[in-house]
Design goal:
single chain, 3 helices, 66% helix, 0% strand, elongated
Length: 117
């Protein structure tokens, strides 16, 4: 399910601020994901090395299983890093998502500013 324009997007300033942070976090996330995948593969297979796609030492089943697992690990870690990175930038910039602002208005926590006539 894709939601567009739900108010949770970063502002233009937030997007600009997030670019270098996101790039850095992406690199760190890739390194972490590689390590996590290595540990998970070692526990599953009992082998220290992951199967290489062009190696004849592993069956096609093992290679495909390793690729699927690697994709899942990388996807999970990348998504988590993107989400928490975005939340950190938003918190730093002190701009709550629109949904939270709307909720606060409905609950009476935020009073609208008076309109000058």
């Amino acid at each position: 399910m894709t939601r567009r324009g739900d108010g949770n997007e970063l502002s233009t300033l937030g997007k600009i601020a997030y670019k270098p942070i996101g790039l850095t976090l992406g690199i760190i996330g890739g390194l972490i994901a590689g390590r996590v995948f290595g540990v998970v593969w070692k526990k599953i297979s009992g082998e220290d090395e992951t199967p290489q796609p062009l190696s004849d030492d592993y069956s096609t089943r093992e290679v495909l299983l390793a690729a699927a697992l690697q994709g899942a690990v990388f996807g999970l870690i990348k998504t988590a890093i993107d989400r928490y990175g975005m939340k950190g930038v938003r918190r730093f910039l002190d701009t709550p998502p629109r949904a939270a602002r709307d909720h606060a208005h409905r609950d009476g926590q935020v009073r609208p500013t008076p309109v000058e006539v």
